[in-house]
Amino acid sequence: MASKPTYPPGGTFFDTMKKSFADVPINTEKDNAISTSEFLEAAETLTGLFDVLGSVAFTPVKSDILGNVKKIRDRQLAAPADSEDLQSLVVNELKTKKHTAAEGLLWLVRGLDFTAQALRLNISSTEELSTSFRTSYGSTLKPFHSFMVKPIFSAAMSATPYRADFYSKLGDDPEKVQSGLKVWLSALENQVKILKAFQSRKEAQW
């Protein structure tokens, strides 16, 4: 039985997002500092896409992202004044000789990068989602996963719906869907790029 549309009549899935990456403030005057609260909300909202993908096989992927969001938010709640942006949160946590949130952000960025690369590959081609996600997994998460975790994620790659079914679940109007997806995806890619550059610096490592 087909699942019900996840968007309002005449709209798209992206219209229903609680928080889009396109709405996350970035302070370009402070070395591209990314606002913590909005970023975490956008990451939580992103997991709704895995619901659209419609397979329980994606539950571990979704849980992984939400688990890492929690680690970062816990640190934010414990030290709000030191955590207004993600970069400050990490640097200030590392000063306390702890790295729970910093490691959570590292894995969160990998998960977001995996999602972003898969969708970019897919909208830039006519290949099926399973191919795009499998290619992205190989270059993002797979190198860091243990032999026990890899089969779980591989199962998710194989359980993706047909491309036409996936996009139809995002909205009735293909042009609106592609437009909304591209705006959201470009913002996500930019924030992943900023955070990967930050995480490569000595101040962000432990």
Strand order of the main beta sheet, please?
1-2
Count helical runs. 9
- Tally the beta strands: 2
Helix and strand string, N-terminal first?
EEHHHHHHHHH
- Looking at how many chains there are and whether they match, the oligomeric state comes to single chain
Gyration radius, in Å? 17 Å
User: What general form does the structure show?
Assistant: globular
Span from first to last CA? Answer: 49 Å
What is the typical, i.e. mean, pLDDT? Answer: 92
For the biggest sheet, the summary is: 2 strands, antiparallel
Strand content: under 5%
Poorly predicted runs are none
Helix content: 55-70%
> Structural class of the helices, strands and pairings?
mainly alpha
Produce the secondary structure layout:
Elements lengths: L25 E2 L5 E2 L1 H11 L1 H6 L5 H20 L7 H10 L4 H24 L5 H11 L10 H9 L4 H8 L3 H26 L7
Antiparallel strand pairs: 1-2
Helix pairs in contact: 1-3, 3-5, 4-5, 5-6, 5-9, 6-7
What does this structure look like?
This protein is 61% helix and 2% strand. With 206 residues, the protein is mainly α. Strands 1-2 form a two-stranded antiparallel ribbon. The model has no long low-confidence stretch (mean pLDDT 92).
List keywords for this structure.
globular; 206 residues; mainly alpha; 9 helices
Give the gist of this structure.
With 206 residues, the protein is mostly helical. It has a two-stranded antiparallel ribbon.
